[in-house]
Amino acid sequence: MLFLLLARFYLREEQIQKGRYPLQFGLTIAVLIGVLISFSLQGYALYSIVFSTLFQLLNYCFIYRFFKDTRDQPKDAVSLRFVKAGLWLGLLSTLLPYGIGVASAKGLAGTEVYDSLVYTFMHLQYNGWFLFVAIGLFFKLLETNAVPYHTQHATRFYWLFTLAVIPAICLSLLGMSFSGFITVPSYFAAFAQILGLVFFLTAMPSTLISWVKKKGVWFATTFAVFFLSFCLKTILQTFSVLPYFNSLAFDNKPILLAYLHLSLIGVVSFLIITLMVELKYLIQSAISQLGSLLLFLGFVSTELLLVAQGLGNANLLTLSLGSASMALGILLLLVSPSSEKLHQ
After folding, report:
1. How many angstroms separate the CA atoms of 97 and 114, rounded?
2. Same domain (yes/no): 25, 61
3. Do 280 and 155 fall within a single domain?
4. With CB atoms counted within 10 Å of each terminal CB, which end of the chain scores lower, N or C?
């Protein structure tokens, strides 16, 4: 969906056809199905490695074409800066699975070396390319609608987050035995990110809330979930540098899952839905709105229940109901009426 939205917001129709983006998109979906089936049946083995490698090659093709097709666009645009940084981070992240495969082949699975590679890969994915591209698309949404954010503060936000993203890998490794050696970059990353969040908030125009309200309740709700999730996610990641929160983050699986859900569902997925509503890819109907409502209720309830479970105060049944609500919500969105633009 991020690839689809990047093509829609940044490329002209003739560029999309000349660059064969529809073919790339179709092949990517086919390969992803192969990834899903092969990993489900055999884990990290021959066929899953083949499909994963094909997926990465398709990513390289997309990144190459996208950089080539956006050369004539303003290089100082905040949105495009975030998007391109995100794609570079995505490119960097693709090197890690090769290291993970080598480590697994050498019998290092379950060791700190193996786990460090996995955590680094995950960080570069959800705090790197997913987050940066999502934030870039957020600013592109503002630019497209002529919402006048503070460019200088937004640029400072970009530089602080960009400078922090590699040192922030250390925040994902503070539960390791060598954590004493990565304290300084961890504190630097935490400080840069929280300062960046301040510049992000001060970059927002005073008219933002009124503009969002004019878009309607559906748009406003998904937008608010994205915006608040991003702020909360950044604050929580900053707190992870503190010993108490560090132990919660690394020794408590439900708390870790709650954070991952906040990052991937709250930030990325709800921004995608916001953009789909904006582009009329999702058409307002009883089915689509019910789907969004169930997804929202499922997301909020599972977040609260995962935190409660991490603190010893939740049961599996209620958590399953929240997950079922999200699954049903997504299903309703899939079968709801959609714009012809999406099919094209």
Report:
1. 10
2. yes
3. no
4. C
> Residue 63's domain spans which residues?
1-73
Please, which residues have CB within 8 angstroms of residue 115's CB and are 6 or more apart in sequence?
Answer: 176
Alpha carbon 333 to its chain's center: 20
Q: Considering the domain boundaries, does residue 145 fall inside one? A: no
149: region left, alpha or beta (phi > 0 left; psi from -120 to 50 alpha): beta
20 is written with which tokens? 């064969």
Query: And the tokens for 140?
Result: 């592109």
Of 94, 105, 90, which Cα lies nearest the Cα of 46?
105
> Structure tokens of 302?
């599972």
My answer on whether 57 and 184 are in the same domain is no
| Distance, CA of 301 to CA of 306 (rounded, Å) | 8
Residue 174 lies in a domain: yes
Which residue type sits at 13? E
Q: Over the stretch 151-169, which tens digit does the pLDDT of each residue have?
A: 999 999 999 999 999 999 9
- Name the pTM for this structure: 0.90
Report yes or no: 280 and 337 within 8 Å, Cβ to Cβ: no
Q: What angle do CA 298, 280, 85 make, to 5 degrees?
A: 75
